[in-house]
Amino acid sequence: MRALIYDDDEDLAEECAEALALRGHEVRTRRGETDFPALIAAFAPDLILLDVHMPEFNGIEALLVLAEAPRKTAISVIMMSGARDGLLDAGLSLGRAHGIRLLGTLDKPFAFGDLDRLLAKLPQEVPLPSGR
Known about the structure:
The protein is of the alpha/beta class. The protein contains five helices and five strands; from the N terminus they run βαβαβαβαβα. It has a single domain, classed as Response regulator (Rossmann fold, 3-Layer(aba) Sandwich), CATH 3.40.50.2300.
């Protein structure tokens, strides 16, 4: 399974990348890249760990891009944030309204056991794109 960590906190992104790699995922972090549509097109993730609060391109904008993505039904999303301002709840509502598979949210800082509980909700088989 391919996982993209889209977070502007490079240290946390690398920690998440290591944790997911140990769990058997092929992982990529954004590494300062802000072109979210290009990243999902090039990497074709099955899972996205998505920070909601980022200065250049935030998680709400990313959800709107995913809503139009051809593979949106094949992508699972975990939203995360260190802010306690209700934006995670807004993101959940937006994602559900657009048919995005949201596994849940993580309040930063989080324990990797919390991440594991959300990863347990991943589909056991990654669906093939339609037409195959």
